[in-house]
Design a protein that fits this description.
The chain has one helix at residues 15-21, and strands at residues 26-27, 30-31, 72-78, 87-89, 92-99, 104-111, 117-125, 144-145, 149-156, 159-166, 171-179, 194-196, 199-204, 212-217, 223-228, 239-243, 246-253, 256-260, 267-272, 283-284, 288-293, 299-304, 312-316, 326-328, 331-335, 340-345, 351-356, 367-369, 372-376, 381-386, 394-399, 409-411, 414-421, 428-434. The chain is built from 1 helix and 34 strands. GO terms for molecular function: protein serine/threonine kinase activity.
Length: 437
């Protein structure tokens, strides 16, 4: 696979980030990155490290134009609708979708090199939820892969059902994780399955008796462990982290932030904070865990990540409800529901800067590539700004369709973006690859 030519100029990023990412080269006092070609897979939600960082040697285009096909490498029409992000496994891309006309939930397989749709497998038919939130879809959880199999999770037939398929679409097993019949709010489901130490961890949290966090054996689909979660409608995806040498699975919601042992499911610690409903995924640094939400109480909360304190280290009233936050060493970035971008110091929550990006409406999470942060707004605009704590520096705005809910994914010095073009009955979803042509 050819490596696209690298641009002559690479934007400066904070020194702490450069040192941490291992990109610093000293040559006559100048700093520059190692020039290697990135070809890493992106196997699950938030990528290989769970932090939505592209590999350290990856790049992505600064500008593109979908209408004029400028820096658009390929564009593939996707049937139906979904808010899941794609994953990249070897030579192929996998993403889920739902077609309301025939009431199907599907897994799509596309070529990594040219975007050609290779296969389109129906996983469920005729069992779509009766009601969901207008900002949700019937295919919102992203798939996960261990490189040999694909794992997909759907809210279907009033349950959370996980299916394992090999890379050619043959079903290995299918498992109902839990009933899912929310009573107070029929908003649907959004948590992605994640792979942790050979287990598939699935959140099925709702205001009912089977609300749980479960870890399934990837070979059989059977429970390895299962912990009860509060009877409370929650949408957060769990995530694997290591803080202070301790591996853990983190999740927030139900007025708590919790850490579980990934092998046994034993609760390592829990802190009473945050709010009832969380959609975003917890983020962390080497000492702290941070989450944000907005129902019924809006805010962003930071706690210590070793369980040594049950108190909040700092908090503010900024609401990042559906979208997750993003950390780099010592700093935290977020784009609020109001369309305002922030940078905070993780040590104490000090606001480093804030600026308005757009008028509001965001579901996708910020992505870090080559020292730049990519933020996709619901109106289809992708903003690019520098990952700097010193000041806000907007690098580009790229109109990319008319509606964008899925988080972009980096691969092969390109970005994969799932977007919708048109409105109402005329809306068509596309998976596009943007990069230097």
């Amino acid at each position: 696979m050819l490596c696209p030519q690298r641009p002559l100029h690479r934007m400066l990023v904070p020194l702490a980030w450069l040192l941490w990412a291992g990109l610093v080269q000293l040559a006559g006092g100048a700093m520059g990155p190692v020039s290697t070609c990135a070809a890493a897979d992106w196997l699950q939600w938030r990528g290989p490290e769970g932090n939505n960082h592209a590999p350290a040697d990856a790049e992505a285009p600064l500008r593109w134009d979908l209408e004029r096909s400028e820096n658009v490498v390929w564009k593939t029409a996707i049937p139906g609708r979904g808010h899941s992000s794609p994953i990249v496994v070897g030579d192929h891309i996998f993403l889920t979708t739902a077609v309301a006309e025939d009431e199907t939930q599907r897994l799509i397989k596309c070529s990594r090199s040219d975007g050609r749709m290779v296969d389109n497998w129906i996983i469920h038919r005729g069992t779509l939820p009766e009601r969901i939130h207008s900002n949700n879809s019937f295919a919102s959880p992203s798939p996960a892969s261990d490189g040999q199999n694909i794992y997909v999770s759907f809210h279907t037939d009033d349950a959370i059902v996980v299916t394992s398929l090999n890379l050619e679409g043959k079903q290995n097993w299918q498992r109902k994780v839990a009933a899912f019949r929310p009573s107070q709010f029929q908003f649907g489901y959004g948590a992605s399955p994640i792979l942790v130490d050979g287990l598939l961890v699935v959140a099925a949290e709702y205001d009912g008796p089977e609300s749980c966090l479960a870890a399934l054996d990837t070979q059989t689909g059977r429970d390895v462990w299962r912990v009860a979660r509060p009877s409370n409608l929650n949408f957060a995806t769990p995530i694997a982290a290591t803080i202070g040498g301790q591996p853990m699975v983190l999740i927030s919601g139900a007025d708590m932030i919790n850490a579980y042992d990934p092998v046994t499911g034993k609760e390592l610690w829990g802190v009473d904070t945050a709010t009832e409903a969380i959609c975003g995924t917890v983020v962390w640094d080497d000492r702290r865990v941070i989450t944000s939400g907005g129902n019924p109480r809006a805010g962003t909360w930071c706690i210590l990540g070793d369980g040594s304190s049950n108190s909040v280290q700092w908090e503010n009233n900024v609401q990042c409800y559906e979208q997750s936050l993003l950390t780099i060493p010592n700093y935290l970035f977020g784009v609020a529901d109001t369309g305002v971008a922030y940078c905070w110091r993780t040590m104490d929550g000090k606001q480093m800067w804030r600026t308005r990006l757009f008028g509001g409406g965001i579901s996708a999470s910020p992505l870090l590539v080559d020292g730049r942060i990519y933020v996709a707004a619901e109106d289809g605009t992708v903003f690019v700004f520098q990952a700097s704590q010193d000041r806000f520096e907007l690098k580009a705005e790229n109109k990319t369709g008319d509606s964008l809910f899925a988080t972009p994914v980096p691969v092969d010095d390109r970005l994969l973006i799932r977007t919708g073009v048109g409105h109402g009955d005329q809306r068509q979803e596309y998976l596009i690859s943007v990069g230097l042509r």
